[in-house]
Amino acid sequence: SMGGGTKGFGYGIDLTGATYGTADVRLTSGGKIVSAGAIYIIPNGDVDDYLSIETLSNVPTLKGVGAYLRVGDAATTSHGLASEDDLMVSGKLEVAGSAFFDLGISVTGGSISTSSNIAQSNDNAQHSWGANNEVRMNYAVQDADAKIAQITIDESDDSGNNVPVLLFAEETNYSFMDLGLFDEVVQPHIAVGENEGKYTSSTTGTADGADNDELTETNKFTNSVVGDVVRIISGTNVTAGWYRITAVTDASNVDLDRDFASGASTDITYVAYHGLGMITPRAFYLPIYDGAPSDSDIDINLDGAIALDVGNNLLYGRSGTVWQHWTPDGESPSFADLTLTGDLLMADTKGILTGESASDYYHLDAYNTNDAARIEAVRISNSAVASGLAIMEVTADFYLVEKAAAGPDIAARGQHWVKTVTPNEPWFTDDEGNDIFIGQGDFAGIAVDNNSGALTPEQQHGWELITVFDADCPENISNGDHTNNNITVGATGVYRLDFDSSAAGGGANKTYKAVVFELTETTGPIASTTNATPVVVTDVGHPFSTNDKIKITGVATATDLNDRIFLVTKLTADTYSLQEDNGGDIIGTAIGSGGTARLVNELELIHAHRKFAAADVGPFIGWGTANLTKDRTVELYYKNITDTTDILFETIVFGIQRLG
């Protein structure tokens, strides 16, 4: 009822000021809506979710009952708002004064902008980004003397793949699209990019599969210069990583500092940058130039700047207003010209290198400052240098430190060195690696000390190895891995070979012959030998021809064939028969298998004939020269020309000496 009449239902609104119960709402003549309790506004008859206006603890309060309070209808909550204390603004919110946020600000898919400052005034504060607040900027205060600002990334939910990368660069050259630049980075990085920054990127770079350090794409490298950084991100047959441009062939082709491809590729994703510097816990990445840097390359001309010249592999620093270089660690200093105005001091000034010129030579002197004795080290003749011969003249004692072996071979160079033995020995090594003892003549030998015993020939006219040697003579050339019955040649050259013995024939009027053989190429294994006359050898793919001489060793069962020299008659590509030196067939005694056959050269100049009378004991001597080949073996053989009776070799010396 309006105007004080009786209510028709529930409660009413009195426009005159009359009172109708404690819960009534009155609209006073002053334009006020007055209620003794909360005022509920229930639109659409929804008694579960409505608007409440009330005064709580002297604070006028507007809230939603049953649900959160929303201003605007453009959206619903995406953050689980459900409390009567929650407020959603589906449009823009303008605050003309200050806004206070006690528990933080969370922004999803947008940004915060202000024409004034955003300040968080409390200590130990934190700002975070990411779906799970993975990135945090912290300000922490432990005490008045310990304050820290931090940028951290939580790696606990991604196996450590995300690490802090702080990038300072001009925005148009670096964006979220470039996150691939830092793929596989596992340590925090502070990166700084030039204003020109990224100048090219693509997903269609190519490699031809032949030149695996060359990156190709039409007109993509117009602005490239040596020293630019290229990040290979992905592609077929490529290795992702950081690379540096070492050569710009043209606008479509650049060479990188190492191979990045293992085959052809047409889908290489990459990005290239000018001047990208970085600081990490593991390294400091310097600005890179193709040539010496200058003041025009930097913004602030102050000493302390450093840069790397990749064109010449030199490290530069600005000191005393001048750019000066040092060679990078691990490289030998290399200068086109080096001028010294004084002495060169070495090892804490304990050594001095100084020079003194004369009319026809130049002194280069080295001496120890702790020693009054001055050592003149090197003198080079000007005229000799002009003709290609440098002279080193030593006027004081000259010492070489002993060592176990010569150094690496260098073509057209030889080595003088001192071998570590007791006492040590002087050696020379040529450029083929031949070690030559220079204290005495080059020789090697084997010998019989005394009373070797008798040797019985297997067959008449058959060469058999003298196997009675029991001593290895002192030797001054390497004779390799050998037994007491042979000598392995240490170096190719001309040798004198000789043997000298005392022997007794096995009976009267017996004639024996001794000859030196050089053993060459080896075949084998022998498949079989026959028990027949002549003995036939199956040696698959043998290289021998009729009338070749061979030595057989290592045959099982038919052991009488071992350590003997035979003539060969070639039967097939895989077989041959064996004859004595006079052409008689070798008689088989058993079927044999295994072993090897080796082609031999008979050194006919080194031989001896000896006819023994009854009870005769006398010399058995032969000598001569021959060209011998390194790593081949020489052996001394004998045969009984008369029959198969024994011969007794007593003292024997068999040796070789290099003549040239």
What do these coordinates show?
InterPro entries: ATP_synth_asu-like_sf (IPR023366). It comes from marine sediment metagenome. This is Ubiquitin-activating enzyme E1 FCCH domain-containing protein. By secondary structure, the chain is an all-beta fold. The chain folds into 6 domains: 13-89, no CATH class; 165-279, Elongation Factor Tu (Ef-tu), domain 3 (Beta Barrel); 286-326, no CATH class; 344-386, no CATH class; 402-439, no CATH class; 445-658, Beta Barrel (Elongation Factor Tu (Ef-tu), domain 3), CATH 2.40.30. The chain has 1 helix and 49 strands. It has a 6-stranded antiparallel beta sheet, with no helix packed on it. Strands 34, 35, 37, 39, 47 and 49 form a 6-stranded antiparallel beta sheet that branches. Strand 17 (241-250) and strand 18 (253-256) form a beta hairpin. It is elongated, with a radius of gyration of 50 Å. The relative contact order is 0.07.
